[in-house]
Amino acid sequence: MEQYYKELLRFLGRKLGDAQDAADIAQEAYVRVLDRNGDCAITQPRAFLFRAALNLCIDLHRSRRGAQVAPIDAEAEGVACAAPLQDERLYRRQQLARLERALQELPSACRQAFLLRQVEGMSYDEIASRLGISADMVGKHLARALRHCRTRMRAWESEGGCPPGGAGGRR
Fold it and tell me: Which family does it belong to (predicted)?
């Protein structure tokens, strides 16, 4: 399915009008297709991949449209409750520790590509130049990192505990 990547990226670029969004959607489409739990083979992989990408475009559009709608009672929603905020902070710290642990499990180049993209906001070409690899390899590293992190986060979440080594601790 990797042979469709550039074509998918061009298609999404035209559809979305934004190269960054197109790259993000393409990457997520690949991850979703690769992560699927299907027992039957995909007979038309290109069509399947493009449909997944289109569905993600629709989700992106809906989320952006929904984010612009103001709540009916904005004042009531602005009132904070201390206990849920503390629970939310604890949960976010646990998730961050889990993510850090999952990233440490990745090969160095894969982890660097992920961090340059997600933290630094660099483009595929910028990452490729920085790491001395092709933009296609950057895409492969990013898909691998996302797939790995998603798998590990789900596993740890279902176990209900922190990753081995404690909250973010290294083995």
Answer: Belongs to the sigma-70 factor family. ECF subfamily.
